[in-house]
Amino acid sequence: MKLTFYKYQGTGNDFVMVDNRDLEISKNDTKLINRLCDRKFGIGADGLILLENSEDPEDDFKMVYFNADGKESSMCGNGGRCLVAFAKFLGIIKSTARFTAVDGVHDATIQEGLVSLKMQDVKNVFQNEEFLFLDTGSPHHVIFSEGLGNKNVKKEGSEIRYSSRYGKAGTNVNFVEKTSSGSFSVRTYERGVEDETLSCGTGVTAVAIASYESGKTTSENVKLLTPGGELSVTFKKTADGYSDIWLSGPAMLVFKGEIQC
Ligand SMILES: N[C@@H](CCC[C@H](N)C(=O)O)C(=O)O
């Protein structure tokens, strides 16, 4: 079978996109999805996303996300932003979207390649002297440190990801350095890729909230600098936690292709 695919990237977090409205790809084919994401034997990507029809008539589409290891996983913020750009390319939406992903319904807007994605509310943030942990659709461990440029993110990240604290499920790990008030540099180790990626959308969302929660910023509009580019996160702190969380940044089509499966 020949599969038509589209490659997208959002601040360097890259994804294979497949229009699966006719259910051509099976979600259980872990080996195939892993091979499509392989940078030597396949197309190469941090993850693969299926755009499908949603069961909810109010949705424009549904998002099904797989990490590069071929396994379906929790929410991907940059992937969600890229999927909105893909839906616009396919003519499914114009400048606004509503879709269902593994963590629930998301609203989004798109204007001139800039996609803003509404994330789920965050109620709980764990904090101790060393790190913060929160779930922004995916689980994130956040550590503030200095000398971010010299950090071995793959080594240090995988030690935390596989530590007994996080058990079998593991976690994503974000290393953060404050650059100015309301602006932070972030490097992320992603589970399921098992390496540093150039950017992580749920990761920078977690970092923005962790920065506020730990008093490192008093701004509800945080700029995040990743190795792949700049993102912003806005939110409202409420008595219940954090709500009205929006992740914004560029999402671009890189190329279209066909691959033999
Ligand atoms: N790149 C993503 C996060 C994808 C999910 C993550 N690897 C996990 O399995 O938790 C993003 O942009 O949020």
From TrEMBL:
Molecular-function GO term, any one: diaminopimelate epimerase activity
Enzyme class: isomerase
Matching InterPro entries: DAP_epimerase_DapF (IPR001653)
One protein family per Pfam: DAP_epimerase
Active site location: C76, C200
Residues engaged in binding substrate: N13, N67, G77, N78, N172, E190, R191, G201, T202
Subcellular location: Cytoplasm
Keywords on record: Amino-acid biosynthesis, Cytoplasm, Isomerase, Lysine biosynthesis
Annotated catalysed reactions: (2S,6S)-2,6-diaminopimelate = meso-2,6-diaminopimelate
EC number(s) recorded for this UniProt protein: 5.1.1.7
GO BP, sorted A to Z: lysine biosynthetic process via diaminopimelate
Pathway in which this enzyme or protein is active: Amino-acid biosynthesis; L-lysine biosynthesis via DAP pathway; DL-2,6-diaminopimelate from LL-2,6-diaminopimelate: step 1/1
Residues the record marks as site: Could be important to modulate the pK values of the two catalytic cysteine residues: H140, E190
SUPFAM superfamilies associated with the record: Diaminopimelate epimerase-like
Biological function: Catalyzes the stereoinversion of LL-2,6-diaminopimelate (L,L-DAP) to meso-diaminopimelate (meso-DAP), a precursor of L-lysine and an essential component of the bacterial peptidoglycan.
NCBIfam families: DapF (TIGR00652)
PANTHER family cross-referenced by the UniProt entry: DIAMINOPIMELATE EPIMERASE, DIAMINOPIMELATE EPIMERASE, CHLOROPLASTIC
Protein name as annotated: Diaminopimelate epimerase
Species assigned in the record: Christiangramia lutea
Lineage, broadest ranks: Bacteria, Pseudomonadati, Bacteroidota, Flavobacteriia, Flavobacteriales
